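Re: your question about Type II toxin-antitoxin system HicB family antitoxin

S., sorry for the slow reply, the queue was backed up all week. Below is exactly what I fed in.
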Amino acid sequence: MKWRVILEPDPETGEWAVWCPELPGCVSAGATEIEALANIQEAIELYLEPDAIELPASALTREVFVG
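Result:
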């Protein structure tokens, strides 16, 4: 799956900030552009990882495909 990310250099430190517009709050950074891209890839994977939730026995779980 591909995600669009935005890289922005910090003029003071020379490091890179990176964020994914489609995933609110999914941000990262790196000393280089390559490092920032690797870090945001990991951040996206963690962002998309489902959280464990406790449901009552009567609750139903289903998957919905969007595409």
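The radius of gyration is 16 Å. The beta strands are 6-9, 16-19, 27-30.

Happy to talk it through on Thursday.
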